[in-house]
Amino acid sequence: MKLLRLALPVYVELLTAVVAVGLIDLLWVSPLGGPAVATVTIATAAENLALGVVLAVSTGTTVAVGRRDGREPLGPVVRTAWLLGGAVSLAVAVPGVLLREPLARLFTEDPGTARLTAGFFLVSLGGLPVFYAQTITDGIFKGLGDTATPMRTALLCNALVIALDPLFVYGLGMGVQGAAAATVAARAVALGVALTLLSRRLSRHAASGPPARARRPDDADTARAGRTGGTGDAGKIVRVVKAGGTGEAGEIVRTGLPMSGDFLARSLVGMLMVELVGGFGVTPLAAYGTGTKIMLAGVMAFYALRQAAMIQTARSGRAGPTLSLGLAAGGVVAAVLNAVAVPAAGLFTSDAAVAAGTVDFLRWMTLYLVPFGALIAAGGTLQASGRGGRVLAATLAGFAVQLGLAHALGAALGVTGVWSAMAAGTALAAVLVAVPAAAGSPAGKPVAALPNLDS
To answer: How confident is residue 229, by pLDDT bands cut at 50, 70 and 90?
Structure first.
């Protein structure tokens, strides 16, 4: 199935680009002591928040390029994406560097750790435009239906970080700041390779000339549905944004903002959950932290499916069985985590109480992971078909239920009530998303993917 072929490279890319770089830095700086480890942990969290901002541009670009590839010139939308990316880079990087010291103090009260973190931010936030440029480059490749090249450049970047970290941290005597410098340098090299490949790809695209007729394979089906008043987006008259500049910028931002909002909302709720679980003591908090780290490898499969669904919908108008695949992926991940819960917990902690709490958390997450898989996977289809705002609304509704129940059930059942609340909120969000997703693509029929319909 094409959806899975698109998703597998994305899964590898997410594990390497989103997860592995921070872990590699932690590995190399850990001999420097606790403050160095805390610095890298804080910087990784801050970078994740920064990633949430640029997702508005990168995912919107993926959809916009996918809608046009083979149907109209890509130059205007690619140029617009770079202009938006540059503006967002400056808007985040410049204040971040100038305010790095107070920003560091927001994350830690320890003066030594705050000093190290500010020094790390000077390099990492200063190099944020490189990170953003790579993210947008990957978004363009994905819009072209190529998920393998972003995977390869992510693997190249990781290999370079592994090699450069010890050189910068110890060989050049830069300490923990060297980890930031090594990461920026590795990303710059990987970006250079990616831009070279992208330039060749776009040159070939331009040389092939415009298509004889800008038509997606399922235009006839969509047009018939429009004339007969079909249900879902296929029954709507879609407007193709052909004007340059503002038209493309508006399309990219409107399409990408819901994904960015979803990511940032999850980050915020994650912080609130840490504070809430921390109220039950150090052991439950440690178990929660350990369990979420173990879950991450499985959860990335859902996000890979989401991106694949987004790409395929933007390019062909056909979503595929994303809900079913998401539910199946959730079940598989839950089963695997249940099977490996005990040995995996033992790898992360030698504390018996924390290990037992981690295993209990992973067992309860079965109720969470199945609807979460469906929610995330179906979101890609809805975003590419112009209904990303509905996904964000469903996500926020789920979070409202989750946080409310977490306080109520936590008071009655202890930390187990919090785990139950996570499952309940996610199940609600999945149901809210499943209805428009099913209506928009009945029996695998095409959905109208042009343009964004949220406005």
So the answer is: very low
Band of residue 437 on the pLDDT scale cut at 50, 70, 90: low
Instruction: Decide if pLDDT at 345 tops 80.
Output: yes
What is the Cα–Cα distance from 277 to 251, expressed in whole angstroms?
Answer: 40
Instruction: Find all residues with CB under 8 Å of 174, minimum gap 6, and list them.
Output: 168, 181
Give CA–CA dist 314/378, Å, rounded: 14
Amino acid at the residue 434: A
Residues near 184 by beta carbon (within 8 Å), at least 6 away in sequence: 123, 124, 126, 127, 130
Name the residue with tokens 């112009």: 386
Residues sharing a CB contact under 8 Å with residue 181, sequence separation 6 or more, in sequence order: 123, 168, 174
In contact, 81 and 140? CB cutoff 8 Å: yes
Q: What is the DSSP string of 20-73?
A: IHHHHHHHHHGGG-HHHHHHHHHHHHHHHHHHHHHHHHHHHHHHHHHHHTTTS-
Residue 220 has pLDDT above 70, yes or no: no
Question: Distance between CA 136 and CA 89 in Å, rounded?
Answer: 11
